[in-house]
Every structure is written in C-alpha cells, then in structure tokens.
Design goal:
- It is built from twelve helices and 16 strands.
- The protein has helices spanning 76-83, 119-131, 146-157, 203-206, 208-224, 238-249, 272-284, 292-295, 317-328, 330-336, 343-358, 395-411, and strands at residues 2-6, 9-13, 32-36, 46-48, 87-91, 110-115, 136-142, 170-173, 184-187, 230-233, 267-269, 297-299, 307-309, 363-369, 372-381, 384-387.
- Helix 5 (208-224) runs parallel beside helix 6 (238-249) and helix 7 (272-284) crosses helix 9.
- It is globular.
Length: 412
C-alpha cells in the first residue's frame, strides 16, 4: 500500500500515485481516503469502504455482494481502517473531489425544509414533528398556497407535550427564496396524480414528466445556493426524480455538464421504506412468507423493477416472486378501496426512513450505484454512505437486481 499526506488529509492507494508527493509511513489512526478512478457523471462520488475488493470495483452493483468482489491485497493499517469505519473512497474523476478531504461531517440537530404540504407532505410533516425532536432542530414548510402553509404552521404550533414545550421541533413557514437554507431538503411536490378510479396502470411513471419539471427547477436553485446538505426525493417516481435532481443540478446555463452541482451522495430517494413495510405486512399474514421478517431484503425502485427477497440465507425464487407481486400491487388495492395510498408511504418511506437516516441508522433508500439510484439497505456514517454488504447473494437474486438497474437506466 502507498500512503500520502495531501492537502491536509491522508490518502492510501493500491498503486503509486503521481502528483501527490512522496509516500509516507502507513497511517494507523484518523480519517483515511482512498482515491479511486471513475467517470465524472455516472460513477459514485464518495462512500465508506466496507471491503478491500471495493477498492478495485467501487462503482458497480458488486459492492453489495462480497462474494462477487475480487479480493484486494491490503496491509494491516488499511484493514483496520476498513473495520473501524475510517476509510472513504473518493472518485478522482469528479470535479471538486479534493474538497471532500477536509469537509467535516455536520454534528448536532438538523434544520429540515419540506417543499409542498399536500396529503403526503402534511403526513410526513406530522411524523417528523412527533418523532424527530432528537435530531431535528426545526422544520421549514413551503407551498404554492400561503393558506396551506398558514394552516399547518398553526396546526403544528399547537402540537406539544405539556410542560415540555421545546421537546418537539418548531414548524416555520419558509419562502421559496430560502428553501435551501437548511441541512435537509425534502422534495414532496407533485402534480398530475391520476385520480382514484382512473385506468392508469403505472401511476408512478405517469407522474414522472410533470414532477421532473419541478425537480429541474429546484435542482438549479440548489446549484445556485451551493447547497451542501441532503436532498431527499419523496415524490414519485422516487428513483428517477433523484437522478433528475443530480443531473440537472450539474448542468451550466447552456445545459452542459460541469459537475458543479449536487454530488451523487448528497441525494437519496426515499421510496423503498414503504415497499419493505408492505412486504412485512404480507409476511405477517402468511406463514409461508414469514422468513422475510427476519431474513428478507428489498431492492430496487419504488415500483416496477422492485424485487423482494424472501430470505438471504434461504432464498426461494417462487416465494420471492409472490411476495414481490403482492408488494408492488399493494397501492392498487388501496385505490380499489377508494382511497389514494399516501399515508403509509409518507410515514414508512418518508418520516420514519428520514429519521433513521439522520440518526445514522440502517434504513431503506435509493443511493447512487451503477449510474442510477438503486434502493438498498444503507446508512450515513462519518466516512460516507455505507451500503449493506451481504456475504453472498444467490445468482437469481443478483440477476433481479441487475434487471432493476437496467429498468432504471432505460427510464433516464
């Protein structure tokens, strides 16, 4: 291994690096960065290394499966840095990667701003207000309707614990001009939702064109504000809108890519949480599917392309296909009852998953992998985003994940 001191940070590499000065003695403590090659647009920006093989294959779906990684020969100090969560991969192909070497992770409570307080937004807001006092300092709300924001500021201002009036985060109205004065931006805006009873089969994709135009506007606002926080896509289709935000924020006035906008790891889609919860709902009600509750996983987008594994240890293709079908069509069953399916998504994908993310705990969300935003189990750490590394995925399961990735690539 080759170690370097560069611009106030310590680097480590499998091969000698040109332009980084002379090698130094192995680094045994503190943050450590591993420069890795990569495409400026379609590869990851930075992430926590969880396996030596991720140094050789840092950007593809293989980072999810240890058995598909080539074992890299690393020394004991690097192994220790991996085990202790101190090693961060940085893509040197991305503009501005050197800024990450000295960026200090934010500590303390976060300011959260929500855009659009409709059915989903107001339900999500209620969840954050009630449950987020440990990690949220305050919540800003923004909507096209001043009447709606006035209502929810008034309502939420009257939600409090007796005699402990500062225990829950305050809710404040924020103007569009200040929507990015925050640590976490939550995009819940949506238009063109097909009404209950319509013949639209894929409701989520029907919303893409309309919602993408809104995302583009706010992505450019984030770019202009040099936003350094977390952008959360909650509106449908979550995964495609997350990538839209990433791409559009990195284009200059003439539409040319320059990489000066949001980094891919700054954006996460929050749609997988409710799919995981729906799978659990069915698993609780059918003993054949109950293995999901202790051994199962969910992968892929919030909708078509999603795949539910009944078990990682005892994978069953037929049971997984059945559980996947039940999960993907659950929203249609709610529509058959005559209601829009928004409460569970707003809470399971929205409020609950967001709070887990802010606490640095494992949650379901879409992270940038293989050129798309892929829903996986992940968490935020001081060394960057960490995706769950499974010891071995059956070939059939990994094949479904590849199919999901291809589906997302065809959309955008």
């Amino acid at each position: 291994m080759y170690y370097y001191s560069y611009k106030g940070a310590h680097l480590v590499s499998l091969t000698p690096l040109d332009g980084f000065g002379p090698p130094i003695a192995p680094v045994t403590e503190g943050r450590l960065f591993a420069p890795v090659p990569g495409d400026a647009v379609l590869d990851r920006g930075s992430f926590r290394i969880g396996h030596p093989g991720q140094l050789l294959a840092p950007h593809g779906l293989e980072v999810l499966d240890a058995s598909r990684l080539t074992e890299a020969e690393v020394d004991d100090p690097t192994l220790a840095a991996i085990a202790e969560g101190r090693l961060t991969a940085v893509n040197t192909g991305r503009p501005g990667w050197e800024e990450l070497l000295t960026a200090a992770p934010k500590s303390g409570k976060r300011r959260v701003n929500l855009l659009a307080i409709g059915d989903v937004g107001s339900t999500l807001l209620t969840g954050l207000k009630l449950l987020g006092g440990d990690v949220i300092s305050s919540i800003g709300i923004c909507d096209l309707s001043d009447q709606i924001t006035a209502r929810w500021e008034f309502e939420m201002g009257q939600v409090a614990l007796p005699w402990d009036y500062d225990a829950l985060p305050e809710v404040e109205i924020v103007s569009p001009d200040h929507i990015f004065d925050c640590d976490v931006f939550v995009f819940v805006a949506s238009k063109g939702i097909p009404p209950v009873g319509s013949q639209v089969k894929d409701v989520r994709m029907a919303q893409f064109e309309a919602n993408a135009s809104i995302v583009k506007h706010y992505a450019r606002m984030a770019r202009d504000a040099r936003f350094q926080g977390l952008w959360c896509a909650v509106s449908d289709p979550v995964d495609s809108l997350a990538k839209t935000a990433y791409l559009e924020s990195n284009r200059d006035e003439s539409g040319v890519w320059d990489g000066k906008g949001l980094r891919p790891e700054q954006i996460q889609g929050f749609g997988l949480g409710v799919m995981n919860a729906r799978a659990a709902y069915y698993a609780k009600r059918d003993a054949r599917l109950s293995s999901f509750l202790s051994e199962g996983r969910s992968f892929g987008p919030h909708g078509t392309g999603l795949f539910i594994a009944n078990s990682i240890q005892n994978y069953d293709e037929a049971l997984s296909q059945e559980l996947t079908h039940l999960t993907v069509t659950a929203n249609l069953k709610m529509r058959e009852l005559g209601f829009k399916p928004y409460v569970a998504p707003a809470l399971s994908s929205g409020a609950l998953s967001l709070l887990l993310a802010l606490r640095g705990e494992w949650h379901c969300g879409s992270v940038f992998l293989d050129g798309i935003y892929m829903g996986v189990k992940n968490r935020f750490t001081t060394a960057g985003i960490e995706t769950e590394l499974l010891p071995h995925m059956p070939d059939a399961l990994f094949g479904h994940i590849r199919e999901a990735a291809q589906h997302l690539k065809e959309i955008l």
